[in-house]
Amino acid sequence: MNARPTTLFEKVWEQHVVRREEGRPDLIYIDLHLVHEVTSPQAFAGLNAAGRAVRRPERTLATVDHNVPTTHRSLPVADPVATRQIEALRENAAEHGITLYDMGHERQGIVHVIGPELGATRPGMTIVCGDSHTSTHGAFGAIAFGIGTSQVEHVLATQCLLMERPRSMEVRYRGRLGPGLTAKDLILHTIGRIGVAGGAGHVLEYRGEAIRALSMEGRMTVCNMSIEAGARAGMIAPDQPTFEYWRGRPRAPAGEAFDEAVARWSTLGTDPGARFDQVVEVDLAGLEPQVTWGTNPGMVVPVSGRVPDPADLADPDNRATAERALSYMGLEPGTPMQDIELDRVFIGSCTNSRIEDLREAARVARGRKVSPRVNALVVPGSTAVKAAAEAEGLDRVFRDAGFEWRESGCSMCLGMNDDIAGPGERCASTSNRNFEGRQGRGARTHLVSPAMAAAAAVAGRFTDVRSQA
Amino acid sequence: MSATTHAIQPLRRVEGIVAPLDRADVDTDQIIPKQFLKRVERAGYGQFLFNDWRFHPDGSPRADFVLNQPGYAGAAILAAGRNFGCGSSREHAAWSIADYGFRVVIAPSFADIFQSNCYQNGILPLALPENEVAGVLARAAAQPGYALIVDLEACTVADAAGWRLGFEIDDFRRRCLLEGLDDIGLTLQYESEITRFETR
Question: Which residues, numbered 422 to 451 in chain A, qualify as contacts with chain B under a Cβ-Cβ cut-off of 8 Å?
């Protein structure tokens, strides 16, 4: 039998089609539904109003991350509106029999950090969450994407989604990452190349030697930012590092069941000769650490570069967008990126808050001091990451250098809790979005890798981490 | 068909003033900033739409923002640049647009999740060619009160001066909008197929 060669994405999608009918979206089955406090209350309210049950509570996993304070976990949450939202999730989880990793639980954390950490995220799955950074889980060879609250309700009620099958795009890397470069630099550079809408309507598959060489943490960083290229999802074929990451996790089986799963997943990768709807090649030769200068993640330059001049842009829309961005960012065209002074540094978020990210930042921070002009924050992605970092003494490294060491949560990535930057304050951030107001009204965000953020905290301005290591 | 959990108003024909927002890559953090996502209700988000662009930090309206200009009061159609609604999955963005009174958003392209959220809330995300959107934006900016008639049954958009354009839209989504159908009601018809899938 000569089966047509297929892509990783096609294989996983086709395995989940419950019903296909001409002229309709596919009805696809959802293996894992991640839930957090911000995008779920209205979904549960709809479900409850219609008298419906959660179809598969055991395929649903909840945590609190967006709203939670990162300071004192023992005190009540000060914000009464946020408290009500957290309470709502507690009630809904209890009523519908959903496991909740609540504040104070040793497994609480950012939803996209704890899914993989628990071993709940697995290759070949379909995974959704009312959060656009659900694409993170694609690092395991899952189809994982963000959905709105109506669809959260849909999945709670039916464990399915109605969805047009997206198109596929191969992002093929040439070359490898040089010393001092990270997954964050690779993906920022990629978004700069293909643009913030370059992946629209597509599921990306990241391929090439550079991808294979990344750790699972690095792969999660890459897939996490697929949405910033406008893509529906991003995927990486599962391989030995994927299986080793999963081994021994709380929700991973041992023995024969583990081996069987691995054997099944080993055939998931894209077949030789399989066709993608689109192919993009990204050359990594000469890549430098990346820093964003504007108000979307595609506005990015190498650290040795300068703030671009909108006048150099041919497209009038791009020019207008760049002018607006520079005005918001308070930057002059032609300014060397390394001359830009900072007020804040944030190391955290579902993009870069895992143990490896903290190790990379700590390696730079060790024995150095945060610049007196900078307020720097480290927010581990989960309570388990925090514990692991403390066991390695990373908290001491950060504290000794003058960083604040916090409890886990989304924190300053989107500032739904008290962790925000003030108007006009400039922040080097390891998060995923530099949109206007994202970290606080009037706050100016520059996206960088954890190592670059640590180096920036010390220097008080952007600097090439490779010269500090 | 099962009862819907939140009524979706059918959309057949919308005649209304166009509010021009001539910006590309408008992200959902701009459509509704994070501080308004803490509520547990589904209604009442129109007051927060485009908050940071629409209001000064003290809450007073910014005269330079289109929605604060009297000529665009009561607009039912929002026109904007490409890749509208990019960024976060927050359905609050669609809720705020609908609650403000918009039924149609016209742009050259939309971000995937936002587009899907529009369909779930009876909003038509109408993608038109970039040059046609540029024309709509220019006319709406030059003539406050400029109106369009969007006819979803005929798949046409037209103005009173004789400009008229046909458009394409996914037929399934079109029917859902015309009839005000919600996905959950549709999917629950296939309960037995879901069960069969789960037990295979």
Answer: 423, 433, 435-438, 441-442
A23 touches chain B (CB under 8 A): yes
**What confidence score (pLDDT) does residue B142 get?**
98
Compute the C-alpha angle B97/B102/B104, nearest 5°.
Answer: 105
Cα–Cα distance measured from residue B13 to residue B157, given in angstroms and rounded to the nearest whole number: 10
- Looking at the complex, does the CB of residue B86 fall below 8 Å from at least one CB of chain A? yes
Contact A35, A98 (CB under 8 A): yes
Helix H, strand E, coil C: the string for B74-120 is CCCEEEECCCECECCCCCHHHHHHHHHCCCEEEECCECHHHHHHHHC
Q: How far apart are CA A266 and CA A280, in angstroms?
A: 25
Whether the model pTM is above 0.90? yes
Q: Are A134 and A128 in contact (CB under 8 A)?
A: yes
Q: Tell me if A23 and B171 make a contact (CB, 8 A cut-off).
A: yes
- According to DSSP, residue A347 is labeled E
> Closest approach of chain A CAs to the CA of B183, in angstroms?
7
CB count in 10 Å sphere of residue A184 = 28
Secondary structure of B144-164 as H, E, C letters? CCCEEEEECCCCEEECCCCCE
* Gap between the Cα atoms of B85 and B94, Å rounded: 9
A84 vs B: CB within 8 A: yes
- pLDDT of A77 reads 73
Which residues in A49-81 are b (16+ Cβ under 10 Å) and which e?
Answer: ebebebbbbebbbbbbbbbbbbeebeeebebee
Residues 34-63 of B with CB under 8 A from A: 34-35, 37-42, 52, 57
As a whole number, mean pLDDT of residues A208-223 equals 98
pLDDT in tens, A410-451: 999 999 988 999 999 999 999 999 999 999 999 999 999 999
β-bridge mates for residue A173, sequence order: A282
Quick check: A319 contacting B, CB < 8 Å? Answer: no
Q: A173 by DSSP, 3-state: which?
A: strand
The order of strands in the sheet holding A17-19 is A17-19, A26-29, A160-163
B2 pLDDT above the threshold of 60: no
> Which residues between 134 and 153 in chain B have a beta carbon less than 8 angstroms from any beta carbon of chain A?
none
Count of Cβ atoms closer than 10 Å to residue A275 Cβ? 13
User: ipTM greater than 0.90, yes or no?
Assistant: yes
Cβ–Cβ below 8 Å for B112 and A79 = no
Residue B6 has pLDDT above 70, yes or no: no
User: Chain B residues with CB inside 8 Å of A41's CB?
Assistant: 40
Q: What's the pLDDT at B3?
A: 39
